[in-house]
Amino acid sequence: MNDALVLRGAALFADPTRGVDVVVSDGVVREVAAAGSVQTDAAVVDLDGLLLMPGAIDPHVHPIHDETFASVGNAAVFGGITTICNQLYPDPGEPFGTAIDRMAGQGADGTADFAAHLRWDRSRTAADVLEGAERGALSIKVFLAHPDKSIQASLGELAIAMTAARDAGLDTLVHCELGDVVDRMLDLGHASRETLEDVHHWRSTDNEAAAVTAAALVARGTGARLYVVHASCADALGAATAARSRGTALSVETCPHYAFLDVSSAPSGGPGFVLPPLRTLDDQRAVRNAIVSGLVDTMGSDHCGHGEASKPHEIAASKAGLPGLEAMLPLLIDAALGDDAWLPRQRLLELVCEGPSRVFGLGVKGRLRPGYDADVVAIDPAGSTTLGAQAFHDAAGYSPYQGRNLRGSIARVWRRGDLVVDGGHAVVEGGGRLIPRSREA
Question: For residue 1, what pLDDT band results from cuts at 50, 70 and 90?
Fold first, then answer.
């Protein structure tokens, strides 16, 4: 149980004219008052000159490949992320409840709190999905494209999955590419994957948009809630806008690599290979515009901690996915600071704090206000951050943002009132908790 403390004198990130005292006890924010106004015998932490925001929530993390539940939880907090939503892949035949218990046990060795998205495949029943919901899962995830064809779903199978998710009160995450099309295009010699540009054309923006449209059609027909993961391009965002106009209950996620990389600026070959693929600079601009306008609800890192052996230069031999767990929030902070900032500060909070909490029913996460968990990030706006594998704590061993110099730095991070990172050094490791979906969400 945490001792009481007061975080004194920092300004709010979204309102830097407002200095505050944040009173914390038992891991919960008790009061947010004007700076210097709280009279207390509790420990006082002077944060004058810093900016405070809630701990970030990463709604899309892969604790597989060279990562574990513990490793992603330990790495996340260095990037200001205090809650991670893991893509949880049950073993064949493993009950969803058992998979969640396995994650809860192993994730406790990581520092960030965590939640579960459950991968669906055609072997799963409505009873499986209901079991997952009863154990606190946030969603089920369906792949319309996947290298493992036992996992890749047809649109008819998506209807089955969405019906089960609707009845269980869960969202359905959908990887929106038409997998049968991309597979046949490659098999028939109509596509190549020698370069990142080849992959961009083969797994095209209109294919992604068609998959968003199709998934939205199924969502409307079943009355399910659709969450489009990793929207990468103008065409997909346009399809999501059109689906919303028809009444689809739809949320949109994008990723830092679509907002800060493009097909011409990323590392070439396997180290830049991700699905959906990196797009053009025009698509990057469209993603940023959608972030600013509010069309995009959340940003998730889609972190994949592939080690060097899994990311050779040859794309055909490379695993898909990019690391980004610790880079996401620093990139967004840089985009929100300075005279040339393109990201409004409140939109940053909506993307990585309030949005994920709202969409997935994370209850006491994502806000800096009384009654919420004391997950707090202190940012030094006068500091700087250099991105690179040498500074990161994940298993990838490389970064697609290598060498970028950013404005602002993460000075301190608290998780439920415990100081876990101070000046880039771990103070506490472990202690992460499973965060179930609120049944009132």
Answer: very low
Q: Are strands 303-304 and 56-62 parallel, antiparallel or unpaired?
A: parallel
- Written as one letter, the residue type at 136 is G
pLDDT band for position 440 (cuts 50, 70, 90): low
Q: Return d(Cα 159, Cα 143) in angstroms, integer.
A: 12
For the chain, the first-to-last Cα distance in angstroms comes to: 27
Enumerate the domain spans of the chain: 5-52+370-426, 55-360
Sign of torsion over alpha carbons 337, 342, 346, 348: negative
Rounded Cα gap, residues 316 and 306, in angstroms: 15
Whether the pLDDT of residue 185 is over 60: the answer is yes
Give the pLDDT confidence score for residue 2 in this predicted structure.
53
Which CATH number is 55-360's, of 2.40.30.110, 3.30.360.10, 3.20.20.140, 3.40.190.10?
3.20.20.140
CB 394 within 8 A of CB 305: yes
**CB 96 within 8 Å of CB 135:** yes
Tokens of 297: 């609800």
CATH class name, domain 5-52+370-426: mainly beta
Half-sphere exposure of 405 (CA within 13 A, CB side): 2
Q: Is 59 in contact with 90 (CB distance < 8 Å)?
A: no
13 near 51, Cβ under 8 Å?
Answer: yes
pLDDT in tens, 104-123: 999 999 999 999 999 999 99
For 430, the 3-state DSSP assignment is coil
CA–CA gap between residue 248 and residue 154 (Å, rounded): 20
- Interatomic CA distance for residues 220 and 217, integer angstroms: 5
Q: Can you give the pTM of this predicted structure?
A: 0.98
DSSP category for residue 330: H
Q: For residue 23, give the nearest of 440, 343, 414 by alpha carbon.
A: 414
Residues near 422 by beta carbon (within 8 Å), at least 6 away in sequence: 411, 412
- Give the type of residue at 97: G
Burial class (CB in 10 A: 0-12, 13-18, 19+), 300: buried
